[in-house]
Design a protein that fits this description.
Helix 3 runs antiparallel to helix 4 (about 100-120), helix 8 packs antiparallel against helix 9 (about 300-310) and helix 8 (about 230-290) runs antiparallel to helix 13. The two termini are about 30 Å apart. The protein has helices spanning about 1-5, 10-20, 25-90, 100-120, 130-155, 160-200, 200-225, 230-290, 300-310, 315-325, 330-355, 360-365, 375-405, 410-435. It is about 85% helix and about 0% strand. The protein is mainly alpha-helical.
Length: about 425
C-alpha cells in the first residue's frame, strides 16, 4: 500500500489536495470570501448605477425639462397676451396706443425667442417637435392677419374686424393648442423624473441588507469558533455596508422630501400659469365684445365670464394652486380679490356700452388708471406673474437641493463597497493564514 501511495502520479496527488482542501475550514472560508466579495461588489455596482440614474433624472428635471416646461408656459402666456393686446389695440380705433403696440411687439418677439429655445432643447424624435413646428409655421400667419386688421382699422374700414377675428381664431384653435401639447408632454416628463429621483432603492437595500446579515453571521460564527475578539476585517466590512445602507436611506428620504416640495411648487405654478392664461383670454374676449358692437356683449362676453369663473370658482385654478401648495392661501385670497375687482370693472364696461356710452366703455378697457377695467386687469396680471415667479423660484431651490443630495451618492456607494470587499479579503485572509 505504501508503495502504491508513493508511486501515485503528481497530478493525482495535487487534485487530491484540492478536493480534500475544499472540505476543510480554509476551503470553506475561501468560498465564503468569494461570495461576500462578489456581493459587496454587486452592491457597489447597483449603488453606482442607481445613484447615477436618480441624480441624472433630477438633473434633467432641474435643467432641460424644467426649462421646457417653463418655456412652454411662458410661450403660451406671451401668445395669449399678444392676442389680448391685438384686440385691445384694435378696439381703440385708428392709431392704437403706443404702450399697447409695444407690449404686443414684445410678446411676439419673446414668443419667437422661446420657440427657438424650445426647439433647441427638444431631443431628436421627441413627440413635441411637431407641435413646435406648427407654432413656428402659424405664428407668421397670425401676425400677418393682425397687421392687415390694423391697417384697415387705421383707414376706418370695417373689413379689419374680419382679419382680427380670423387671427384670434387661428391663435385660439391652432397655435395655443399646439403649445399646450408641448406643456402637457413636458409636464408628464417632469412627473416621470420626480418618480425616478424619489424611487425606493429596493435592489440596493435588499442586497445590502443580505450582505450585512451574512457578514454579522460569519463574524459571530468565527468569534464563537475561535473564542477571540471579533475579526477586524469582517467588522470593518459590516460597518461599511451598514453605512452604505444608512446613507442610501437618508439620501432617498431627503430626495423624496425635496422632490415632493418641488412637485407641489411645480403643480401650484402650473395652476397659476393656467389662471394667468385664462385671465389673458378673458381680456381678449372683453375687447372683442367692443369690437363686435353687439348689444349685451354676445358670445365674447360669455367667454369672459367662463374664463373668469375658471379662475375664481371653488373648483377653479386658484383653488387648485392652493391645494397643491397650502402655503399659498394668503396669495390666493389676494388674487381672488383682484379678480373680483376686475369682474366689477368689466360689468361697469358692459353697463356703459349697453347705455350707449361706447367711447367711455373703450376708455375703461384701454385705460390703466384706478377704476378702469384696464387698470384692474393690469393689477391682476401683475399679481399672478409675481405669484408664478415665487413658485418657480421655490421649485428651483427644492429640486437643486434634491440634486445636491443625490450627486455624491454613486461615488460614496462605490467607495464603501470597495472598502467592504477589501475588508472581507483582509479579514478572511487572516483567518485562512492561521491554518498554514
Amino acid at each position: 500500500m505504501s508503495s502504491s501511495v508513493a508511486t501515485r502520479p503528481p497530478l493525482r496527488r495535487a487534485v487530491g489536495r484540492v478536493v480534500g482542501g475544499a472540505a476543510t475550514t480554509p476551503g470553506r472560508l475561501r468560498r465564503v470570501e468569494a461570495v461576500l466579495v462578489g456581493a459587496a461588489l454587486a452592491l457597489g455596482v447597483l449603488g453606482v448605477l442607481g445613484g447615477m440614474a436618480r441624480a441624472d433624472a433630477v438633473h434633467d428635471a432641474r435643467t432641460r425639462i424644467a426649462a421646457l416646461t417653463t418655456g412652454a408656459a411662458d410661450l403660451y402666456q406671451s401668445l395669449a397676451d399678444a392676442d389680448a393686446m391685438a384686440t385691445t389695440g384694435y378696439v381703440s380705433g385708428g392709431l392704437e396706443p403706443a404702450a399697447v403696440r409695444a407690449r404686443y411687439d414684445d410678446d411676439v418677439q419673446r414668443a419667437g425667442r422661446l420657440l427657438t429655445g424650445a426647439a433647441g432643447l427638444l431631443p431628436p424624435g421627441d413627440p413635441a417637435i411637431g407641435a413646435v413646428s406648427t407654432v413656428g409655421e402659424q405664428l407668421p400667419v397670425y401676425t400677418g392677419l393682425i397687421e392687415n386688421a390694423r391697417a384697415l382699422n387705421r383707414l376706418g374700414l370695417p373689413l379689419g374686424q374680419s382679419y382680427l377675428a380670423s387671427g384670434s381664431k387661428l391663435m385660439q384653435t391652432t397655435i395655443l393648442p399646439a403649445v399646450e401639447q408641448v406643456r402637457a408632454a413636458e409636464s408628464a416628463a417632469l412627473a416621470t423624473a420626480y418618480r425616478q429621483g424619489a424611487a425606493i432603492p429596493f435592489a440596493v437595500l435588499a442586497i445590502g441588507l443580505a450582505v450585512f446579515i451574512a457578514l454579522v453571521d460569519l463574524a459571530l460564527r468565527e468569534w464563537r469558533r475561535t473564542h477571540r475578539v471579533l475579526n477586524v476585517g469582517l467588522t470593518v466590512a459590516g460597518f461599511a455596508v451598514l453605512i452604505c445602507l444608512v446613507w442610501w436611506a437618508v439620501v432617498a428620504i431627503a430626495a423624496d422630501l425635496r422632490l415632493g416640495g418641488a412637485q407641489s411648487h411645480s403643480d401650484a405654478g402650473a395652476a397659476l400659469d393656467d389662471a394667468r392664461i385664462a385671465v389673458l383670454q378673458a381680456r381678449s374676449n372683453e375687447s372683442l365684445v367692443l369690437v363686435a358692437r353687439n348689444s349685451g356683449g354676445g358670445s365674447s362676453n360669455q367667454g369672459f365670464a367662463v374664463q373668469l369663473e375658471r379662475v375664481v370658482s371653488d373648483s377653479g385654478l386658484l383653488a387648485a394652486a392652493e391645494r397643491a401648495n397650502p402655503d399659498l392661501a394668503g396669495t390666493v385670497a389676494e388674487l381672488r380679490a383682484a379678480a373680483g375687482a376686475w369682474g366689477d370693472a368689466h360689468r361697469g364696461v358692459r353697463q356703459l356700452d349697453d347705455d350707449g356710452r361706447y367711447p367711455q366703455a373703450v376708455a375703461s378697457v384701454v385705460g390703466h388708471g384706478p377704476g378702469t377695467s384696464g387698470g384692474a386687469f393690469d393689477a391682476l396680471d401683475a399679481a399672478l406673474a409675481a405669484a408664478i415667479g415665487e413658485e418657480r423660484a421655490a421649485f428651483a431651490v427644492d429640486v437643486e437641493a434634491a440634486e445636491g443630495a443625490l450627486v455624491a451618492l454613486p461615488w460614496i456607494s462605490a467607495a464603501l463597497a470597495l472598502v467592504a470587499a477589501g475588508a472581507v479579503i483582509a479579514g478572511i485572509g487572516r483567518r485562512v493564514g492561521e491554518y498554514r
